[in-house]
Amino acid sequence: MRRPMVAGNWKMHGTRASVAELLKGLGSEALPGGVDVVVFPPSLHVERVIDGLQGASIEVGAQNCATQTGQGALTGEISSTQLADAGCKLVLVGHSERRQVIGESDEVLVRKFEAAQAGGLIPVLCIGETLAEREAGKTLEVVGRQLSSVIDALGIGAFARAVIAYEPVWAIGTGLTATPEQAQDVHAAIRAQLAVENSEVAQGVRLLYGGSVKAANAAELFGMPDIDGGLIGGASLNADEFGAICRAAGN
Ligand code: PEP
């Protein structure tokens, strides 16, 4: 039985004042006991968020890490080791905004995935197709290739300590959500691809859906057999909405 996870990606949002407000809101939400709840603030706010969530049963993750662990001469980067030292437990790897806007390749993301685990963090590998790829019937090919890049380089065992988020690019921040059936089809294909290598790992790994999840559509998505929770962007900036999504995962 996989434990559901709901993860909030705050992206490049948050001032000291707005983060304080959001923390206050999250602290007063009734969160379900059977769900892992995580928030991913900008690195600038990680320590503030960890302090502010003491006793709230919410883990904190980072949105990115360096391709190298430890410390060293790499201006502007933050390593998984440093993030773990600050109290982070997880890190996003391969969010479509980093793939498409920053230009991170599968090769770079494999190195980040590996560095995340070496530094003591659980990577949340984000994969997903663009609208053009979906319309060309290439969804499973694209998602399969993104997943293979990590399996081929690091082995299936790497997914024993990882989470995967299927996030169709056309659904991120657009208000368009994959139907539960569309999402389930891709999640089932991801799990089947992992199962070819190792069925135990495939059955154990949590597959989150991301892309315009709201309180109003969360329960239907989370009710599908291979959807183990969600990666939430915009709606995670509203404590009441995020709390309701977490409760939907608990039902
Ligand atoms: C995301 O950024 O990972 C995401 C899913 O965003 P949104 O929920 O706003 O579509």
From TrEMBL:
Catalysed reaction, written as an equation: D-glyceraldehyde 3-phosphate = dihydroxyacetone phosphate
For this record, an example GO cellular component is: cytosol
Q: Give the residues the record marks as binding substrate.
A: 9-11, 173, 212, 233-234
Organism classification, top ranks? Bacteria, Pseudomonadati, Pseudomonadota, Gammaproteobacteria, Pseudomonadales
Quaternary structure per UniProt? Homodimer.
Q: InterPro entries from the xrefs?
A: Aldolase_TIM (IPR013785), TIM_sf (IPR035990), TrioseP_Isoase_bac/euk (IPR022896), Triosephosphate_isomerase (IPR000652), Triosephosphate_isomerase_AS (IPR020861)
Per the UniProt record, the source organism is Pseudomonas eucalypticola
* Protein family according to the UniProt entry: Belongs to the triosephosphate isomerase family.
Main subcellular localization, coarse class? cytoplasm
The protein's annotated pathway: Carbohydrate degradation; glycolysis; D-glyceraldehyde 3-phosphate from glycerone phosphate: step 1/1; Carbohydrate biosynthesis; gluconeogenesis; Carbohydrate metabolism; erythritol degradation
| GO MF entries | triose-phosphate isomerase activity
Q: Which UniProt keywords apply?
A: Cytoplasm, Gluconeogenesis, Glycolysis, Isomerase
The catalytic residues are: 95 (electrophile), 167 (proton acceptor)
- Enzyme Commission number: 5.3.1.1
- GO terms for biological process, alphabetical: gluconeogenesis; glyceraldehyde-3-phosphate biosynthetic process; glycerol catabolic process; glycolytic process
| Protein function | Involved in the gluconeogenesis. Catalyzes stereospecifically the conversion of dihydroxyacetone phosphate (DHAP) to D-glyceraldehyde-3-phosphate (G3P).
Q: Where in the cell is it found?
A: Cytoplasm
Q: Which CDD domains does the record match to this protein?
A: TIM
Q: What class of enzyme is it?
A: isomerase
Name of this protein? Triosephosphate isomerase
